[in-house]
Recover the amino acids of this structure.
């Protein structure tokens, strides 16, 4: 049996809330705090007591519920050391190369600047699970609000080192819109075409497309595929460096 139980629920317009419960110790964490009242309700439904908040970055749809939940639950707030000033109520600062002990579970922390300066992700290697906030999305990646394409590409490459079976919990249900864009830069990718049919079916049934897997993303996410011949041909960038192709894909997505 897996050590971590993961409870996922939609909130706000297109965010996901995640609660993780470590079975042996009983510790329970909210990954980010998009909607504190929804999180509270889901905690009650599960009969779990909130002990931690694990923040990925400072945006209001990720850290906006921190103080309300801390006041109600008395939990510990963990967040990026690179952005501690902007994480409300932060108790424990963590960053690249550090391990967070969560009961008997261990999360490796990676700095993934690009979407924001101080974004981090939490990777539980023994569980094959990662919480990636707004760094990587199904068939997409976060907008570059505070970082360069070079930074974001370096961040994504860290994630690409994980095993393909890693389940990627991203913070938004953006999959179908991302996929429509992906088809414009990678139109002949059969895995992408097939995936879009699957996504259309899931969404028509009101079902989530999150989590995804790293394997799926490497086959279908144009932001992880700047080396792809098909994408390079489509963009007329056969001889460019990966980071230049990545930057061009990101620019096109911003205008899409
Ligand atoms: Zn964000
Ligand atoms: Fe967000």
């Amino acid at each position: 049996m897996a050590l971590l139980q993961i409870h996922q629920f939609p909130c706000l317009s297109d965010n996901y809330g995640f609660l993780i419960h470590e079975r042996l110790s009983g510790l329970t964490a909210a990954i980010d705090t998009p909607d504190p009242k929804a999180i509270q309700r889901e905690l009650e439904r599960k009969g779990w007591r909130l002990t931690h908040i694990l923040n990925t970055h400072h945006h209001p749809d990720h850290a906006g519920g921190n103080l309300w939940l801390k006041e109600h639950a008395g939990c510990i707030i963990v967040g990026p050391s690179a952005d501690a000033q902007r994480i409300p109520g932060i108790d424990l600062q963590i960053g690249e190369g550090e391990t967070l002990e969560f009961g008997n579970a261990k999360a490796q922390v990676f700095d993934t600047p690009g979407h924001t300066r101080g974004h981090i992700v939490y990777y539980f290697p023994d569980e094959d699970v990662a919480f990636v906030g707004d760094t990587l999305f199904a068939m997409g990646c976060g907008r570059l609000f505070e970082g360069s394409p070079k930074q974001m590409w370096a961040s994504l490459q860290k994630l690409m080192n994980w095993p393909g079976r890693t389940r990627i919990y991203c913070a938004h249900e953006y999959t179908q819109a991302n996929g429509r864009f992906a088809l414009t830069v990678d139109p002949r990718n059969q895995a992408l075409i097939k995936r879009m049919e699957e996504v259309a079916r899931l969404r028509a049934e009101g079902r989530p497309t999150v989590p995804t897997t790293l394997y799926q993303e490497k086959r279908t996410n144009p932001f992880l595929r700047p080396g792809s011949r098909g994408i390079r041909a489509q963009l007329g960038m056969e001889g460019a460096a990966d980071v230049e192709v990545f930057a061009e894909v990101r620019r096109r997505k911003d205008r899409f």
Q: What stands out?
A: The longest strand covers residues 4-11. The CA atoms of residues 109 and 122 lie 5 Å apart.
